[in-house]
Structure formats: C-alpha cells, structure tokens
Design goal:
This protein is an alpha/beta fold and 344 residues long. 44% of the residues lie in helices and 14% in strands.
Length: 344
C-alpha cells in the first residue's frame, strides 16, 4: 500500500472524491475548516498557522514553557472547534542550528505536548526543515527529550533538481535521524510523518526559493510522479514512516510552481490506489500504415471527448497528450508517414 498522502492548503470540492479514491489514509490540512470535508473517512494532520507565519511561532518557542502555555491558549479555540482533526502539528520549521534555540524548543515542545494530552489531543513535534537537525549527535542528544511523549515526529524532505539528488542528506534524511536517536535514547520513538515532500529549489546547493516540480520537470507531471513513486518505494521499507505528505494541492499563488491540479491529482490517486487504467493509450498504438493511424487518431479523439463528458479530465488529458506528443504522438506519426509516402 502506498504511503504517499496529500497536503491541501485551500480545500477545493474535487479533493474529496480524488483523495478518497486514492486509498490514502491521511491528508495534511494547512487551513482546516470547522467542518470535516471528508466525513471522517481520512485521518487529518492539521496545522494552525499564525498570521505572522513561522517567525511569529518562533517568539513562543523562545519563551520555552511559558511560550507553550501562551501558544496553546491562543489555539485551543481552533483545536476545540475542529475535534475531528486527529493530529495537530506544532510550530513549523523551527530553527535548531544554535544551542539556545534547541533548548528552548525542547522546553516548549515538552510542555505543549503535556497541554495537548491533558485536553485529549494528539500532536506532532519537530516539523524540521530540509537538512535539519544538523548532522551532529550532540544536537540530537539535546533535542531528544522533546520526542519522549509526543505522538509523532515530523520532518520535511525535499530536493532539487530531482528528489533523488543528495538522497540521505535531503530526501531520506529521516533514516539518519531515527538511527541516531535510537543510539542515544532508551525510550520507544514515536512514528514519523514526512510533513512536506517533493521538489523544492530552495535546498542547498540550488538555492532557488519558490521553484518546484513545474520548473525542474518542465511541467511534465509524469516525470515528477516517477520521483514520487521512488520515494514511496523507499519509505515502504521503513515501518517508522506513517505517511509522506506531498506539497501541495490547492496551493496559494505563491506556491503555483508546486501546485498539483485536479487532473494530475487523479493520476497520482490512481497510482496510489493501484488502479492505473489498463485501457489503451495513443502511445501504445503499434500500427504502421496511414489508414490505421488515421482511424486511431479519430477514435482516440472521440474517446478523449467521452472522458471529458464523463468528468474524467485526467484521463482525457492523458489521451490528448498521447495524440499530439511531438515524439510519438499519433498525429505526428501519421504526418511523417504521409510525407514519406508522398516522397516515395
């Protein structure tokens, strides 16, 4: 079973059908509404972002235990209004490069976990950005107390120009984190969420912020999906990982280069469900004569129209791309064949 999961920023109506069709068990909602749009059929990991973003959350972290109390009191109304949410993420991508930050985060996280549990709520701590914590056992020893009673640990894993670049340092870094933690603690570690995954040019050494799969895959979602399948295959080897949340669906304008629309979400959902269509596609056609190719062009064009009428936009686009693809699309094959016959 796929461990890939969705991450929805702005909920859109099509998401319910598509996400549920995937067989996924989780969705991360960045702006969770008060009513559960999935009718209890998906487990929800949610964030409650503050208006000032990560920097505003950092102000609470730096106040340690007192900051945890203030942070919890600020958000308890949000938590209570959304009791259908299964797990709440804490502050996003806290800095852990300096010892002061690490110690404050530990004190904050321990008390926030206590407060969440007192109110019957589950939580996820960490939400570390790509490449953090630093590859230093001493840093892990300092951070480890915050994980003891938390329900989940959360890390973010991206890379660029492909997800496989610098694997182990960017994507799959969680293996180092868990192996190191196991070498220094005597308690059972909480399970792991990969809270954000995908292609992100903001990582070292690329350093191109806000560039995602559309830039590095040149808009070819199939190329991106192959990389997501690679990640899925890897995390299925590790029982620690519960889900990897792909960033992002319904993304705001700032995240256009990362956004996955309905048509591409349907392709991904089909993979996750193990139900990729066995129906023929134009690129599967092996005919070599002009008459048959012309007939297939007509048939596939009609089929794409039928799929659009039935609301399966993803399937229709997949067919149309196969018809007009510059390399082996049916129309171009027919054109080249007719030109060759004319010259002969």
């Amino acid at each position: 079973m796929s461990k890939l999961a969705f991450q929805s920023q702005q909920y859109q109506k099509w998401m319910k059908e598509v996400f549920l069709s995937s067989g996924a068990e989780w969705d991360l909602m960045i702006e969770a509404p008060e009513e559960d749009p999935f009718d209890g059929r998906l487990n929800i990991l949610a964030r409650a972002p503050l208006p000032g973003g990560d920097s505003e959350e950092l102000k609470y972290i730096l106040r340690g235990r007192k900051g945890a109390e203030e942070y919890f009191e600020r958000l308890i109304g949000t938590y209570d209004a959304r009791r259908w949410v299964k797990v709440w993420q804490g502050p996003n991508e806290p800095p852990v490069g300096e010892r002061t930050f690490r110690l404050c985060l530990v004190e904050f996280s321990i008390h926030w976990t206590e407060l969440m549990h007192e109110h019957g709520l589950q939580n996820g701590v960490g939400a570390f950005s790509v490449g953090w914590p630093h590859n230093d056992v001493g840093h892990i020893i300092e951070l480890s107390p915050m994980f003891r009673d938390a329900d989940y640990i959360i890390t973010h894993e991206y890379s660029a120009p492909t997800m496989m670049d610098r694997a182990g340092s960017h994507c799959l870094r969680y293996r180092w984190l868990y192996n190191t933690l196991r070498s220094v603690v005597r308690f059972e570690l909480p399970p792991l969420f990969l809270g954000e995954v995908g292609i992100d040019g903001g990582v070292a050494p690329v350093h191109r912020a806000e560039t995602g799969w559309k830039t590095y895959c040149k808009g070819n979602f199939e190329s991106y999906m192959e990389q997501l399948k690679w990640l899925d295959g890897e995390i299925q080897k590790d029982n620690d990982v519960v889900a990897a949340f792909i960033f992002v669906f319904g993304g705001r304008k700032q995240w256009y280069d990362f956004d996955i629309d309905e048509a591409n979400a349907r392709k991904l959902a089909a993979y996750m469900a193990g139900t990729q269509s066995d129906e023929p596609l134009p690129q599967d056609e092996t005919a070599m004569d002009a008459a048959t190719l012309a007939e297939k062009c007509r048939w596939f064009t009609e089929e794409a129209t039928r799929q659009l009428e039935q609301g399966d936009v993803g399937r229709a686009l997949e067919i149309l791309k196969g018809i007009i693809n510059l390399d082996n699309g049916l129309f171009y094959r027919l054109e080249r064949l007719l030109k060759k016959e004319h010259h002969d």
